[in-house]
Give the backbone structure.
Amino acid sequence: ALPRDLEGRRVVVSAGGTREALDPVRFLGNRSSGKQGYAIARLAAQRGAQVTLIAGNTIGLEAPAAVEVVHVTSAEQLKVAVDKHSLGADAVIMAAAVADFRPVNVAASKIKKGAGEPNSIELAKTPDILAGLVQSRRDGHLPGTAIVGFAAETGDEHADVLTHARAKLARKGCDLLVVNAVGEGKAFEVDTNDGWLLGADGTEIALDHGSKALLASRVLDALGPLLR
Ligand code: C5P
């Protein structure tokens, strides 16, 4: 039987990828399937939490049982939804693959093939939602909310991946960082995952290769001690 350790807790999970529109039919997106975030949301509900899942684009995943799902498209919409639902939450888990950049101009009608050279796309930075949550907590707006980030790192050497991930954890200021090494059979579009859990307190837990459900349970186990 699953533990009911999250009974009475309110947990917000973001999942999937954002889409940044270029015109009414085109967007910049990414390969996130949403599977890992959905697995966390499902398991958190099964362990007793009241869960809100902020879902970007996924591969058509079914809503987990007993989870409130809020659908969004762009990074800006994701930010608005995450900020709103995080107020008073016990934990926020940012598993979504948020676009780092968006096109500055969104054409009102479909961009036509021109006669000339291909055009370039001007980009602007999107807000870092995770870093914004940490700042809100520092400002006293999210007292006692545990904040978990994800990092998909490429790199051939484990040492490189971990060095980058440690720096990212420090930069973002969250309590826990779930680090996935991106590559063949890992992280994106597949049912399995592996990596590390890095804690702001210096802890480092290796996550053996396994199902996204298993990784979800390891993340929620690590979340327990962070709850106030
Ligand atoms: O910096 P990087 O994109 O690798 O960080 C990944 C983490 O930051 C994930 O938890 C992701 O959900 C979050 N993120 C965010 N807002 C962004 C970009 C990433 O919250 N604009």
In short: Residues 75, 94, 96, 98, 100, 126, 128-130, 149-151 surround cytidine-5'-monophosphate (CB under 6 Å).
